[in-house]
Fold this sequence. Notes:
This protein is mainly β. The protein has two helices and eight strands, in the order βαβββββαββ. It is globular and about 40 Å long.
Amino acid sequence: MLQYIPMPSDEARAYRSGAPDAYGRAPERQISDGSGAPCRHCLKNVPKGAEMLVLAHCPFPEKQPYAETGPIFLCADECDHPDNEQVPPEILSYSSTYLIKGYSADHRIVYGTGAIVEKAEIEEASKSILVQDRVAYVHARSAKNNCYLLRIEGALPPT
């Protein structure tokens, strides 16, 4: 069973309180136009007219050669945090294609796992990556902009 894991609440709270982003800068504040601004905490689009944060985010525990950094959106106000989401969340419905890739337990890309997949193929493609011996988790990213969306994990039976 797959789990779709959003940004941790304590991390989102820190950014909302003005903690510096991955580049040491305060998150920017903007107003959402209602499309194309998926929050990495609630995994839904930031509603039209709502304030949002735009910041550089690195979803890895430490800097290293494979720790990609990029822009993300975050609801400026508190938002719901889905726990143990087991169906593809709203954030994975905004585009027709996504970039997914597997990472090892030491947070390095497992070569050969990266793929651009259609939205309908995310679950099966993620499962096929997660069953590989060296893969601990999968990241889903925007295929067009390479922005990090969420982490996918799963306890899967061996094939």
